[in-house]
Known about the structure:
The chain has about 110 residues and is mainly β. It starts with 8 loop residues before the first strand and ends in a 13-residue tail after the last strand. It is about 0% helix and about 55% strand.
Amino acid sequence: xxxxxxxxxxxxxxxxxxxxxxxxxxxxxxxxxxxxxxxxxxxxxxxxxxxxxxxxxxxxxxxxxxxxxxxxxxxxxxxxxxxxxxxxxxxxxxxxxxxxxxxxxxx
Length: 107
């Protein structure tokens, strides 16, 4: 089941157990409000059980991008969880600025 949660921050999510994929949706709609962030945003996340046990996030097995109606995103991570239940997903992002070249004219 696809779940959408606004980030940055921490959200409780329900996972079925087994492998799951976490996506970064850079164009979305949540609670009837449109959201958009730069697709090149560098997103980093952690996942833990509610008692704090961390679960390692790995590069996704498939590099997936999608666009459907008001939604667009890309796969970020795969994770393997041992049991179905609630987990805490925490994500944040940074946007790397491009550095311009300075040029000084000599006269």
